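tmp note - Flavoprotein domain-containing protein
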Amino acid sequence: MTELGSSSAASRVLVGVTGGIAAYKAPGVIRRLREAGHEVRAVATDAAFRFIPEETLAIAAGGGVHTDETWWERSGRVEHVTLARWADLVLVAPATADAMARAAVGLGDDLLSATILAGARAVLWAPAMNPEMWSNPATERNVETLKGWNHRFVGPSEGLMASAEELPGVGRLADEAEILAAVEEALAGARG
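out:
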């Protein structure tokens, strides 16, 4: 795992990967962020590893992945606080309904949710889920709660789902270019 020390990069983006099928797209998002000159770290929930190997995320990020297993370091640093202070922006991509619900009610029993709760400066959610889940009143309420805390959202988009559902709907992860544009906008908003 790479150290969380300072860097000369203009912006530091922590990419949170949650347990949805769209997790397989996270390396592409991370690659685009790095190509744009951002310093990137990745944090993944345990459920994310059901869809993508940890090694794949580590290669994309150019360093180790922060996980619940690495949460409490031998050095005595508590990663959720360290990561929250390090990141100029936390991008959750893909963001599941569960991850947004956990944040909206203030849960912090995994590394990603604890990092957001520990005072992340700016948070951008890139939701990806079944259209019925996206339009569920509970999800809509959680999104409004997070927006009320100045969290930002990109997507979801309309299109066929990764699960090969026959009917398209709103729930597909936004494309990489759209996410990158939203990251730049969120970073500009956080600075200004």
